[in-house]
Specification:
Participates in chain elongation of fatty acids. Catalyzes the reduction of trans-2-enoyl-CoAs of varying chain lengths from 6:1 to 16:1, having maximum activity with 10:1 CoA. Has no 2,4-dienoyl-CoA reductase activity. Pathway: Lipid metabolism. It is globular, with a radius of gyration of 18 Å. It contains nine helices and seven strands. The relative contact order is 0.15. The protein has a seven-stranded parallel sheet with strand order 3-2-1-4-5-6-7, with helices on both faces. With about 290 residues, the chain is α/β, with parallel strands linked by helices. The protein binds ligand LGGBLMCM and NADPH dihydro-nicotinamide-adenine-dinucleotide phosphate (NDP). The site of NADPH dihydro-nicotinamide-adenine-dinucleotide phosphate (NDP) has 30 residues, from helix 1, strand 2 and helix 6.
Amino acid sequence: MRTDQPLPPVGGLRPDVHTGKVALVTGGGTGIGRATALDLAAGGASVVICGRRPEPLAEAAKEIEALGGSCVTLSADIREESHVTTVVDRALDAFGRIDVLVNNAGGQFSAPAEEISPGGWRAVHRLAVEATWAMTREVARRAMIPRRSGAVFFIAFSPRRGIPGFAHAASARAAVENLAAGLSLEWSRYGIRTVCVAPGTIATGGLDDHYTPEDRERWERSVPLGRLGRPEDVSGLISFLASPQGSYITGTTVVVDGGADAWGAGHPVPDVPHHLTTPDSSPNKDNP
Ligand SMILES: CCCCC/C=C/C(=O)SCCNC(=O)CCNC(=O)[C@H](O)C(C)(C)COP(=O)(O)OP(=O)(O)OC[C@H]1O[C@@H](n2cnc3c(N)ncnc32)[C@H](O)[C@@H]1OP(=O)(O)O
Ligand SMILES: NC(=O)C1=CN([C@@H]2O[C@H](COP(=O)(O)OP(=O)(O)OC[C@H]3O[C@@H](n4cnc5c(N)ncnc54)[C@H](OP(=O)(O)O)[C@@H]3O)[C@@H](O)[C@H]2O)C=CC1
């Protein structure tokens, strides 16, 4: 199984599983966000995607429309509160409701902890925690609490206990994991589910652009299943969690990482049989 083979949208879910729903995906023009927007649209959801650059958003919208879906794009920097308000205004103007929020936008740089300046720390937490909270609060207050329903997703990191070079980013993601849990205690009464999804290393353009092939190889070696993840490994999970089949899941973190979080530091990663990592020799090609 290779990471350059995308999975088809929707996976095993019914093609009308999200019909009538509206989903807002931050950072929906690229990588995991794009795959998530496509999966939700392929299941029948109308989708709103935002990000700072208009070009990737327009490309993703074209793909969604090619699937027969509806998509609204908005160029916005979610670190600015006024942009958050505008995104929600636009989504409600276009579709009248928001049922699913995927807080996907995020990013960081890799640096030894002692070299992260206060400004660098703040920049990462501002996006991963503060902007995520601003968006979540705005969507909950204006779209979900009044309707007494909704599903909010947060993206964290696996391994979950810390990643060398990512002290700022891993601690920020720990905050959103805790936020998902805490909000479930407060917002279940409104019918709102809050779930954190913790991907391991996923082969996206963002990963290629910001990390070296050596980083990538090192991460790949630390995965018990022997490969990096695909964006669709994450988006398929979110699509399931957003569906009626996921409706009893809230307040928790679901890890999608090829076993990386289960790996005990200090032990060699278990050998993966060759047939599990190559595309054509899988024992069951229909169920890779
Ligand atoms: C094993 C699992 C691994 C998990 C792997 C995860 C992979 C991914 O997440 S892939 C997605 C990748 N995409 C990105 O990471 C996006 C790229 N990153 C960024 O855009 C920035 O890092 C950002 C998120 C911090 C953007 O912030 P912004 O406010 O635009 O940045 P500024 O240039 O204004 O700088 C603010 C502040 O941060 C310091 N800084 C920025 N880059 C670095 C760096 N490479 N090294 C050290 N410090 C950096 C910068 O110096 C500023 O600090 P002060 O000067 O002290 O104010
Ligand atoms: N790839 C991986 O291995 C992993 C990724 N993650 C996380 O998953 C998420 C998606 O990552 P991935 O798809 O790999 O990376 P990308 O870099 O492709 O995705 C990040 C997206 O967020 C958008 N974005 C960034 N900053 C802002 C902002 N201030 N306002 C609005 N949108 C913004 C970007 O668009 P634009 O630049 O145009 O604003 C981009 O579309 C991120 O939070 C990432 O940290 C978590 C675990 C592992």
